[in-house]
Design a protein that fits this description.
single chain; 341 residues; alpha+beta; Triger factor/SurA peptide-binding fold; Chitinase A, domain 3; 3-stranded antiparallel β-sheet; 12 helices; 13% strand; elongated
Length: 341
């Protein structure tokens, strides 16, 4: 996996249920570019939000991680009220986890070469629009101390290094693992009989009068003549967009792939006598009329291993990564003293 160090420093990490969590909360970051007054949820005072084995985490650390989870807060000067509590809780759990990982790296006496820290600092400086902006950041957040910035970069790299050792490297999935999962979960890859088709429909009122029903029938017969004059997917689709009255008209009348068991019996009956590329006659379903163009008919079958192996490997690796990360968090928490303020 790509090293999260640079993304950590830029504070663009993503926290998700299935995606690997990145390191961000203690990495330096520029202030929001806005002249508007900050909303209460974006103001920091340096107050303690949690302690981890005596190490203090502040609301400044928390806000950085909240930005990492929901970066749009900078643009909108705040977090969505309906999501703010969840974002805050997720951010709090993440900065605690990062601190635990950092302390574990220190306990193991892990180190980062000075040259690598130099590279990280140089990469971070490049994210600023000008040297003046960087110097302003150094004064406001690093108190003018380059050593403090180097310490922050080193911290992120140590967290990254330990996660690679305990999570990344152990989450590798072999071709044999993927094959074993495929063989054990065959039912998952069994696809039902399905059809791919387009439609043009006439939809009268739910309970049409005799006059409305007659008018709908006439309109449907006219549509049918036009539909049968089409020669291709494109022709039929453009006609559907022009005259059809069902919701699929906005997408060339295309229903994409539909399992046979999800289609009305009248449609299935029509398909049984059609070949791909053919247009049906009028199909009446209650008071509505539909004309379909069959594009493909796929019999029930099992997806081959070659069809699914690439995406399946990614899925299994993500699952394994997340489980390892969760297990690591549990192990570190079990021997830690954590206080949330």
């Amino acid at each position: 996996m790509k090293s999260p160090v640079i993304t950590a420093i830029l504070v663009i990490a993503v926290l998700g249920a299935t995606a690997p969590a990145q390191v961000a909360s203690h990495a330096p970051t520029t202030a929001a570019k806005t002249s508007a007054p900050l909303s209460p949820s974006m103001q920091v005072t340096g107050k303690t939000v949690a302690t981890v084995n005596g190490s203090v985490l502040t609301d400044k650390d928390l806000l950085r991680e909240m930005f990492a989870i929901f970066p749009y807060a900078r643009q909108h000067n705040g977090f969505p009220k309906s999501q703010e509590a969840g974002i805050r809780q997720g951010a709090l759990e993440m900065i605690i986890f990062e601190e635990l990982v950092y302390q574990e790296a220190q306990r193991r006496k892990m180190t980062i070469p000075a040259a690598k820290i130099d590279q990280g600092v140089a990469a971070y400086k490049q994210t600023f629009e000008s040297p003046q902006q960087f110097q302003q950041f150094m004064q406001t957040e690093m108190h003018g101390s380059m050593q403090q910035l180097r310490n922050q970069v080193q911290r992120s790299m140590l967290i990254d290094q330990l996660l690679k050792q305990e999570v990344d490297q152990k989450s590798a999935v072999t071709a044999a693992d993927v094959r074993a999962y495929y063989d054990k979960n065959g039912a998952r890859f069994q696809l039902p009989e399905s059809y791919t088709f387009q439609s043009i429909s006439v939809i009268p009122p739910l309970k049409p009068t005799s006059g409305q029903a007659t008018e709908a029938r006439k309109r449907a017969e006219d549509f049918l003549k036009q539909a049968r004059a089409t020669k291709s997917y494109q022709d039929f689709g453009l006609l559907a967009e022009k005259i059809s009255e069902d919701d699929y008209r906005v997408n060339m009348g295309d229903h994409k792939v539909k399992p046979a068991n999800q289609l009305p019996p009248q449609i299935i009956k029509a398909f049984q006598s059609m070949k791909p590329g053919e247009v049906s006659g009028l199909i009446q379903i209650e008071s509505a009329y539909t004309i379909v163009r069959l594009n493909a008919h796929t019999l029930a079958h099992k997806q081959s291993f070659d069809e699914v192996k690439a995406e399946l490997k990614i899925e299994l690796q993500k699952q394994k990564y997340e489980q390892l990360r969760v297990n690591l968090a549990k192990q570190l928490r079990a021997k830690a003293k954590i206080e949330v303020v």
